[in-house]
Write a structure and sequence with these properties.
The protein contains seven helices and no strands. The chain is an all-alpha fold.
Length: 123
């Protein structure tokens, strides 16, 4: 799967998951943000690693050994997943923006941020 598709899926699942959580569909919101969006984000982060860093990862499980290849990112992801759904979505987006600057087109970023704002407060 190509990077543009992964990015689109990541942004879409953040928006849909946050919107569902805001409507009271918490289990669906959790699943979309903490599982689906996280999976797309991990793929995007792994794809940008150097061959040396990529060699530290598990070939079969994309989450295994991520702490070895991207220790700071893994810490941020772990912290984000401990937050309520909408703040977690914002934190996951922030991680992508820090680690892959310029990947998200400004219009797509603005639309995603507006949708997350409508979904609820940052806390």
């Amino acid at each position: 799967m190509d990077e543009a598709w992964q990015l689109g899926q990541f942004l879409t699942t953040l928006v849909i998951g946050s919107s569902r959580a805001a409507r009271g569909e918490l289990l669906s919101g959790h699943q979309l943000v903490r599982v689906a969006a996280l999976g797309h984000l991990v793929t995007l982060l792994r794809g940008a690693l150097s061959p040396e860093a990529r060699a530290r990862l598990d070939d079969l499980d994309p989450y295994r050994r991520l702490e070895r290849a991207l220790p700071e990112a893994a810490r941020h992801l772990d912290e984000a997943l401990r937050l309520p759904v909408v703040p977690a979505a914002r934190a996951l987006l922030g991680t992508l923006l820090r680690l892959r600057p310029g990947l998200v087109a400004p219009a797509a970023l603005a639309a995603t941020e507006r949708a997350l704002e409508r979904a609820g407060p940052a806390d």
